[in-house]
Amino acid sequence: METPGSQSSLHRANLERVVRAVRLAGSLTQAEIARTTGLSAATVSNIVRELKDGGTVEVTPTSAGGRRARSVSLSGDAGIVIGVDFGHTHMRVAIGNLAHQVLAEEAEPLDVDASADQGFDRAEQLVNRLIAATGVDRTKVAGVGLGVPGPIDVESGTLGSTAILPGWGGTKPAEELRERLGVPVHVDNDANLGALGELVWGSGKGVRDLAYIKVASGVGAGLVIDGKIYRGPGGTAGEIGHITLDESGPVCRCGNRGCLETFAAARYVLPLLQPGHGPDLTMEGVVRLARDGDPGCRRVIADVGRHIGSGVANLCNLLNPSRVVLGGDLAEAGELVLGPIRESVGRYAIPSAARQLSVLPGALGGRAEVLGALALALSEMGDSTLLEGALPVAAPAFT
Q1: Are 201 and 364 spatial neighbours (Cβ–Cβ below 8 Å)?
Q2: Does residue 328 contact residue 278 with C-beta atoms inside 8 Å?
Q3: How many CB atoms within 10 Å of residue 200?
Q4: Which of 155, 174, 217, 386 has its CB 3.0 to 4.6 Å from that of 88, i.e. a possible disulfide?
């Protein structure tokens, strides 16, 4: 039995520190593990060798800074995580391993008026189908990350009122899916998961402070502070769509007037262009027409960019992020929207904060949220189970 403070318990803690660092990053060189964990290079080398012998990690040759190095990742069969993302008109599911490799991914249309029960039943069916298609061992599933388009109460896990999926408010999404799948489920709103996805796999790699702005049926932000998602005590941090731009402006679904969302979200923007482009116009179509030179669509996208930039300027003044990543269909407009965002940031943000900020389009497109759900499952799982049975009972003397 290990006792607190003993050499064996210290060694076990160091093992878990290394496994956690690799699990969160996907892969690291041994030098990067040492910097991340604060352990000495010799200790890391010994621990990696032990984990490799036990089948917990895989080591492959690589290079870093022009020098030969060894890249460490968790074994491909060490465990499986699942990501599920519900949107306004779709549901997307992905299966990945602990080495951050996506093994399967599929999306299905979702009727916005479908009940929560119908949605969770379909998610269960799609998860089961992908597990069967990939042939992964179901007992290896370590957890599920779940994204929903609405605020989640941190304490109760209850989904707040959402205009994007009417009738889902008041449900407990994690509990519903956990009952169906029989594994731990961790839930967050789609903007936070978009931020996680871009942080781990996309345009946010390498930064510690990030704001992910998602513009779709609503407008929300996922905030990363010092490498971690900031949710606030009630889980509603990042509601940038409800910053007031014009107190005499249109009435927002939240009950206030002139919120950013009323100037940028699809439900408010599309009616401006539908008289000339038909009732079936979508934001994807607006972006495509703008890129092809349509003057009305280009003007509307530029206006939306300036409004978003006003909200981003407020974020800069409050939180001073080093990067803002724009997600959703609007990001495909590229400089047509990014340029006006930067213009507003330069006008309204504190100069020092504006100078330090980079504004980029998301790299993951519509996959950001489901990959963020995988990242959530990876971040929430424990490390001790990865070591069970993989290591010798008697731990070596080194630490």
Answers
A1: yes
A2: no
A3: 21
A4: 217
